[in-house]
Amino acid sequence: MTDPRFMGEDVVGLPGQNLNDDELALLVAQANGRKPSEIQQDLGFDAFTVSQLERTTKAKLGAGTKPHTMSRAFVLGVLIPRALCLLLCIASINAYHTDGTQRVPKRSRAPITAMGGARSAKSKRDDGPLPDLVALMACQVA
To answer: What whole-number distance in Å separates Cα of residue 123 and Cα of residue 25?
Structure first.
C-alpha cells in the first residue's frame, strides 16, 4: 500500500478483487483522467501491455467497457475518492478521546411537557378488570 502509484490526485487505490499492483496502478491513473500515452509513460509500459492490463482489469471487475470498469472499481471498493479518505480520518479522530477510549453518545434530556405527561398518564391508566364476555353475550341473546 506504500506504492505511490496507488495514491492519485483524486482517488486512492486499495488492494482487492484479485487485482495485481500494475492493474491497480492502471485503474488509479485512469480514474485520475490520465491519457493512454501518459499512462504508458508513467507506468513504463508499451501500448500492448496497457491494453492487456485493461482487458484483465475489466475481466476481474466483471465490466464490459472502460466507464463500467471505473464504476465497478468504486462500487467494489477498489477505488475510493481522496475526499472520502480525509472525511474518514477526521471522523476517526473525533471518535476517540486522547486516552484512546471511545466516546459514548449522550441521551437526549428533553423536558417532559404537561401535554406529553398527560398522554403517558392516560395510556397507563388502569380501568379495572376486563368485563366477562360470556356474561355479556348471554345478556344480548336473552
So the answer is: 64
CA distance 45 to 22: 10
Q: What confidence tier does 49 reach under pLDDT thresholds 50, 70, 90? A: very high
pLDDT of residue 57: 93
Q: Kind and range of the H or E element at 131? A: none
DSSP letter (8 states) at residue 35: -
Beta-bridge partners for 13: 79
Cα dihedral 8/12/16/19 (nearest 10)? -10
The type of residue at 14 is L
Burial (Cβ within 10 Å: 0-12, 13-18, ≥19) of residue 109: exposed
pLDDT in tens, 79-89: 888 777 666 66
Model-level pTM? 0.57
Give, as one character, the DSSP assignment of residue 99: T
End-to-end CA distance of the chain: 87
